[in-house]
Design a protein that fits this description.
The chain has one helix spanning 4-17; strands spanning 33-50, 56-58, 63-76, 79-92, 97-102, 106-111, 119-127, 147-158, 161-172, 180-181, 185-195, 200-211, 215-216, 219-220, 227-238, 242-255, 258-270. With 271 residues, it is mainly β. It is globular, with a radius of gyration of 18 Å. It starts with a helix and ends with a strand.
Length: 271
């Protein structure tokens, strides 16, 4: 039984946090100056899971995750540094388990490329295993392993329209308590914006993720790679010093993952 629980644990964490967390929003790759405080309040709900062929494998999974992610970012115009601290509650009714507390802290930095046609921002983030974690539980807020996450963001102003996009690669390290090596992940995210006014904009978004198979004790687990395609929309409004972005995503297609609905409210305050 102890061998089964860690595999379930990693599957839950990966499917919950990987392809929906920090989906690209308006102006994520735009140049800025100063200190910014960001708050991401999100809810993810899923009753369905899928198998390696994308077919429904389970109903009434009853998964819910509520997260408050706090972020500080500092921009010099060219250089940017960020720190992210999540606090979350996650429950899976079908397993009768839940977990609450501090999540895995993430630190990152990047530098804007000298490009006049668009804002292009390469960054590298490191995820630290600071989150609430117990090896004997199938549901955990923390992952108990490190990630290194190189990313590149793009922002292009097209007048009434705008393009925000990101490519991300998650290099995932082994969980020392379970000897599980999660599969590395590749993410592509895009958002097309339309300015209704100079303060209000909306647009459709798409997120795609694919992962390698995970390994247990050095042996690859068959049919354990994952894929997810999520589609939705963002709405943005800017006040004098605060901006708000509402995000909705639906998992159109998944393999070896949950299939559900993601809601997020992002607030950005410049100080």
């Amino acid at each position: 039984m102890k061998k089964i629980i860690p595999v379930l644990l990693l599957t839950l964490i990966l499917t919950l946090t990987s392809h929906r967390a920090l989906a690209v929003n308006f102006y994520d790759g735009a140049r800025a100056k100063g200190n910014y405080f960001l708050s991401y309040t999100s809810v993810y709900l899923a009753d369905e899971t899928t198998d390696s062929k994308g077919k429904k494998s389970r109903d009434n999974y009853d998964l819910a995750k509520v997260e408050e992610l706090l972020r500080w970012s500092y921009y010099t115009g060219d250089f940017v540094a960020s720190a992210l601290v999540p606090v979350a509650h996650m429950s899976v009714g079908s397993l009768d388990q839940e977990s609450s507390g501090l999540g895995d802290i993430i630190l990152g930095a990047g530098y804007f490329l000298p490009c006049k046609q668009a804002d292009i921002l390469p960054m590298v983030f490191v995820k630290f295993p600071t989150g609430e974690y117990r090896a004997d539980k199938a549901v955990n807020i923390g992952s108990n392993q490190y990630d290194v996450r190189p990313m590149i963001f793009l922002y292009k102003n097209l007048g009434k329209f705008s393009i925000d996009a990101a490519a991300k690669y998650f290099i995932r390290f082994q969980n020392p308590d379970t000897n599980v090596l999660p599969g590395n992940e590749f993410h592509l995210q895009g958002l097309l914006g339309y300015n209704i006014t100079d303060r209000f904009k909306i647009g459709p978004s798409v997120n795609w993720m694919i992962s390698r198979s995970r390994e247990v004790n050095g042996t690859k687990v068959a049919d354990s790679s994952r894929e997810a395609l999520s589609m939705g929309a963002d709405a943005y409004y800017r006040f004098s010093k605060i901006s708000l972005t509402a995000t909705y995503l639906y998992d159109v297609y998944t393999e070896n993952s949950t299939k559900g609905h993601f809601f997020q409210l992002k607030a950005v305050y410049r100080f």
